[in-house]
Amino acid sequence: MEVEEGSGEPREDWTLLAWTGLAIVLPVLLTLWCSVQRSKRKGLIQDIFRRSKHAWRLTDLFSKPTYCCVCSQHILRGAFCECCGVCADEGCLPRADRSLSCKEIMSPAQADGSLAHRWVRGNVPLCSCCAVCKQQCGTQPKLCDFRCVWCQTVVHEDCKASLPGGGRCDLGEFRSLIIPPHYLHRINRLRRGQTDEYSKLAADCGPGWTPVLVLANTRSGNNMGEALLGEFRTLLNPVQVFDLTQFPPSKALQLCTLLPGGCVRVLVCGGDGTVGWVLDAIDAMKLKGQEQFVPQVTILPLGTGNDLSNSLGWGTGFAREVPVEQVLRDVLDAEAVKLDRWKVQVASKGYYSFRKPKVLTMNNYFSVGPDALMALNFHAHREKTPSLFSSRIVNKAVYFFYGTKDCLVQECKDLDKKIELELDGERVQLPSLEGIIVLNIGYWGGGCRLWEGMGDEPCPPTRLDDGLLEVVGVFGSFHCAQIQVKLANPVRLGQAHTVRLVLKSSRMPMQVDGEPWAQGPCTVTITHKTQALVLYRAAEQTDEDDEDNSSGSEHEPGSPPAQPVPPT
């Protein structure tokens, strides 16, 4: 008995060791197998996305009750097309890609010259009503009812046959902003250079046709650009919507050459830097002899400062407080104005003076001093860790940190001893300043009316197209903060058509439209370059504007209004 018991102990040890090893190895093998299968599935899905005519996007959770357009089953996760709205789970995705067609950006018209409805079944927008019976659609817990991907009309299955118009689609509310697919089909059949035919073809698109191109920078501000691209592709022709991280403005704007001159509007979704990028591309079109196709530019502010957007009445930032449909309505109703653009020439001194001067284009403002130092520190920090700067609030918090730091260090003090200022050739005696700001627009620093100040002193009016620059001075970072909360005014140095600054010694931070750099001794000359066509929105008057206007009524006659006045 003792021998048998002794011989059983090693067997039990081996059994325990085997079960322990199995308990450890089996989960590891299952995890590796799942990882391999997930990688294969992801590769297959990406391959489908790459070859597909749909603009598929994967989601882990749909935001509303959703049904697969292939198997009609309720799904929580899967893929949806940003253009046509087709939804499918991962298992039905290959079949959906083969059997369900997407919006066709270019297709022939019907025999009578009209466009036919392009219906997609199910997953209609919430609270949508039938165009025939005016009752709510999508109320049944299944794949039901239809939506046209062009005019966004929604109908019940039983009401579809009674829809007025004989199956003809009028492109809906935004027909004057959409490029119809049959227009591009006819343009494609024309010979190259037959631009005279564009106006004839545009007449078939209806009176007041002003197609809009959407150019979005998905890296601006709160990174909302990617979601906005999908919403605009749903409402417009997908060919009108461009991601600037994939298509630079110079390529996207070539679509304007296929449209009648003077009728195109460009909606730039991004910050002031993105707007400047697009305006530079428009200037390049003029140099190529394409001035007749130059579009009018409007802004959907997604950046941090958005001072140009604010000056044109489009607000300080877009945070989805209004739907995309309202944005398109505002673009349709906006008024065209002209915006001065300026050439900033920086000629360095010293041993490297033989180099060509640096030439920049200014739309908003040029500055040297504490605000340029804050922008320079912010830019350097963002270059090191770009993932931290995905929120407008975080960006402003970092600006506040560097502004507070400069209040203690005062790196830009005694600027008046280091720099000379000339306005239209006349030397200006500078007080003890730390910064100089040259303005082209009404707003600065994320929404501050710098030239008008608190409104307790009369000042010459400003316009976007007057060919004049406003020059002000600040005493430091703390003074900038006081100006932004309306506790102080800047030092108004004057207005001029040409501004010249000479940095005699030391190295100072400078910026043009938020693009900063550190500059040694140099001569900066700012002269008028050209004018751009932009769209001005007459925003509703706020309580703050009412207070400013009431205080402005006590000024001398000729005092400027609180809001920037568009040119006539």
Protein model, in words:
The chain is an alpha+beta fold and 568 residues long. It contains 14 helices and 26 strands. The chain has helices at residues 2-51, 93-99, 181-189, 196-203, 225-235, 249-252, 272-287, 307-311, 324-333, 370-384, 392-409, 415-418, 477-484, 543-552, and strands at 56-59, 66-67, 74-75, 78-81, 87-88, 115-116, 119-121, 146-148, 154-155, 168-169, 212-216, 241-243, 265-270, 296-301, 335-348, 358-362, 365-368, 419-423, 426-428, 435-439, 469-474, 491-496, 499-503, 508-512, 515-519, 522-536. It has a six-stranded antiparallel β-sheet. Strand 4 and strand 5 (87-88) form a beta hairpin. Helix 10 (370-384) packs across helix 11 (392-409). The longest helix is centred in the first third of the chain and has 50 residues, at 2-51. Residues 541-568 have low confidence and may be disordered.
- The beta-strand count equals 26
Note the gap between the termini.
113 Å
Helix share bin: 25-40%
> Which whole number gives the mean pLDDT?
83
The parts where pLDDT drops under 50 for at least 5 residues are: 541-568
The spatial strand order of the largest sheet comes to 16-15-26-23-18-19
Secondary structure category: alpha+beta
How would you describe the shape? globular
Q: Cα-atom Rg, whole angstroms?
A: 30 Å
Main sheet makeup: 6 strands, antiparallel
In percent terms, what proportion of residues is strand? 15-25%
How many helices in DSSP terms? Answer: 14
By oligomeric state, this entry counts as single chain
